[in-house]
Write a structure and sequence with these properties.
Blueprint: H1 5-25, H2 31-58, H3 63-72, H4 76-86, H5 94-106, H6 108-112, H7 116-124, H8 127-145, H9 154-163
Length: about 160
């Protein structure tokens, strides 16, 4: 066996285990509830991509972004601030804190009921996530070269992302 075959086999085994765990956890949740939660998960992940893109392009969290976060995500900025105080040497990746916050605050039921892996497994394979990631990558490249004169709202950015093919 060559030196690349072992990592590939391990990766394939891990993929099979992940799929099996997701399939097993599907028995813990009604299919329509899982589908609805996947849609919510994709929506919040889209918001995190837009947040990351906007903040990284600007280089700071603007006052309008602070207002948006306070309105859409009450308590998130306090969460991020507390994390920064507890981990002063760690880089401030606001989008990463946002992912943690959404998982803990918005998807805690799937964690408590034991189907969090299924949610993540199927949501990351959802075609909408592929469109959102592709659009984020395209915008990131373009905005590094020429930032937009004004940043699109989340709703406009998401709509553009979901039309992206």
């Amino acid at each position: 066996m060559n030196h690349l075959a072992k990592p590939r086999k391990a990766e394939a085994d891990l993929g099979r285990q992940s799929k099996q765990l997701a399939e097993d956890e599907c028995g813990l949740v009604a299919p329509d509830r899982l589908a609805q939660t996947i849609t919510e998960f994709v929506e919040w992940r889209a918001f995190s991509y837009w947040l990351r893109l906007t903040v990284e392009t600007q280089g700071f969290v603007s006052d309008p972004m602070i207002a948006i976060l306070r309105e859409r995500c009450p308590g998130f900025l306090d969460y991020a601030s507390a994390f920064a105080k507890e981990h002063p040497r760690e880089p401030e990746f606001l989008w990463l804190r946002f992912l943690e916050w959404t998982d803990e605050r918005l998807f805690h039921v799937s964690i408590a009921e034991g189907w969090r892996h299924a949610l993540g497994y199927y949501a990351t394979r959802d075609p909408r996530m592929d469109q959102i990631r592709a659009h984020w990558k395209q915008c990131r490249r373009a905005w590094k070269l020429q930032p937009p004169a004004s940043f699109p709202s989340f709703e406009a950015w998401r709509e553009s992302a979901l039309q992206h093919r």
